[in-house]
């Protein structure tokens, strides 16, 4: 798959979710989401491999410190969580979930193996309505974790031609 047609697809609940990932963690998750879309029977037991070379190629990252940055991101990503607006028995609810069940950094081979959580899988696959999609290439040159998040919030409204108004405190959260 070429870099120009790697499609990121997320449920709008995940676009609107509250989370705080570093730029490297966000990029690893974006690559994992793109890879996961190619897997037919995706489950929490499915290993998704992200190589350091694919990361550096996609994001034009400096290769000097990237191995240690990805290793550190793999260590912290397991503990990261997100909160999103959900439904429980027909009522609005607020759920909190982890991004991955397990993540492994293979030191000598330079790649990360992710096992996505059930919640992430449900928010990136089998989507029929209320989802946002964009090409990974569109955010590859972003240098801030905030720019990717802001782009996703804005692109979510592309089809309607209007954007939602966000309070500054909501954006900060």
Give a structural overview.
The strands form 3 sheets. This protein has a 3-stranded antiparallel sheet, with no helix packed on it. Strands 3-7-6 form a 3-stranded antiparallel sheet. The chain has a two-stranded antiparallel sheet with strand order 1-8. The N and C termini lie far apart (35 Å). Helix content is 35%, strand content 26%. By secondary structure, it is of the alpha+beta class. It has 7 helices and 8 strands, in the order βαβαβααββββαβαα. The protein is globular, with a radius of gyration of 16 Å. Strand 4 (81-88) and strand 5 (91-98) form a beta hairpin.
Topology:
Elements: E1 7-11, H1 12-15, E2 18-19, H2 23-36, E3 48-51, H3 52-59, H4 66-77, E4 81-88, E5 91-98, E6 100-106, E7 111-116, H5 118-124, E8 131-135, H6 145-155, H7 168-172
Q: Which percent band covers the strand fraction?
A: 25-35%
Radius of gyration of CA atoms, rounded to a whole number: 16 Å
Number of strands: 8
Helix content class: 25-40%
Enumerate how many helices there are, as a single number: 7
Reading side by side through the largest sheet, how are the strands ordered? 2-4-5
**Which parts are unreliable, with pLDDT below 50 for 5 consecutive residues or more?**
none
Order of helices and strands: EHEHEHHEEEEHEHH
End-to-end distance: 35 Å
Q: What's the mean pLDDT score?
A: 88
* Main β-sheet description: 3 strands, antiparallel
Which secondary-structure class do the elements indicate? alpha+beta
Q: Give the overall shape.
A: globular
């Amino acid at each position: 798959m070429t870099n120009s047609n790697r499609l990121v697809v997320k449920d709008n609940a995940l676009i609107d979710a509250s989370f705080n990932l570093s730029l490297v963690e966000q990029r690893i998750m974006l690559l994992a989401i793109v890879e996961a879309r190619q897997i037919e029977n995706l489950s929490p037991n499915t290993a998704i491999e992200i190589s350091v070379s694919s990361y550096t190629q996609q994001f034009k990252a400096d290769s000097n410190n990237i191995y240690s940055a990805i290793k550190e991101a793999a260590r912290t990503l397991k503990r990261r969580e997100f909160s999103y607006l959900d439904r429980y028995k027909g009522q609005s609810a607020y759920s909190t979930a982890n991004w991955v069940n397990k993540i492994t950094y293979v030191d000598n081979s330079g790649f990360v193996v992710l096992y996505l959580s059930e919640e992430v899988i449900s928010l990136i696959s089998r989507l029929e309505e209320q989802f946002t999609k964009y090409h990974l290439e569109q955010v590859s040159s972003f240098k801030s974790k905030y720019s990717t998040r802001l782009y996703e919030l804005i692109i979510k409204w592309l089809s309607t031609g209007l954007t939602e108004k966000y309070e500054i405190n909501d954006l900060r959260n």
